[in-house]
Fold this protein.
Amino acid sequence: MRNVILIGFMGSGKTTVGLRLSYRLRRTVIDTDKEIEREEKRTISDIFAADGESYFRDRETSCLRKLLQSKECRIISVGGGLPLREENRRLLHKLGQVFYLKASAETIYERVKHDTARPLLQGDDPQGKISRMLAERDGCYAAAADVTIDVNGKDFEHILDEIEAQADQA
Ligand code: S3P
C-alpha cells in the first residue's frame, strides 16, 4: 500500500480533499504545513516573516524525509510550493502516489481572495500574482505527478471519486 499524496497550487483544495479522502479511505491524513507549524509552534506567516522563505523550504524537505521513515500508509497533503524543489519531487515519488489537483487561476483567485494566511499572495494584484506563479509552477507540478485531476467546476465528491478510481489498489 502506498501513501496518497496531494499536490497543487494554494487554494486548489488539497487540505479539504485530504480530510474527506481520509474518511473515505479510512486512513489518517497529514498536512505538511500543519506539521511544520506544530513542530515550530508558530504559523507559516510568522516563519516567513522571521526566518524567510528558504528556511521554510528546508523545513518542508525535512518534513518529507521524516514522513519517509514512517511505515503508516496515509493521505498526505503538501504545501503549494513544496514540489518546486527537485529533491522534494524525488522524495514525493518515493513516498507514494502523487495526485496533482489542477485548478485554473480564476478558480484559485475565487477561493483565496479573502485569505490572509498565505504570505506569498499578499500585497497588490493577487490575481496577477496567481497567474504568474501558476504559469511558473505548472511544469513542476506536472513533473511531480503520477495522476492529474482537473478540479475546475467539480464538487468535492466528484474529485474524491476520481482520485479513488485511480488510486493504487495494492
Ligand atoms: C505556499 C503554499 C502554502 C504554504 C506557504 C507557501 C506556496 O500552502 O506552504 O504559504 O509556496 O505555494 P497551501 O498550498 O496549503 O496553501
Summary: Residues 10, 14, 33, 44, 79-81, 118-120 surround shikimate-3-phosphate (CB under 6 Å).
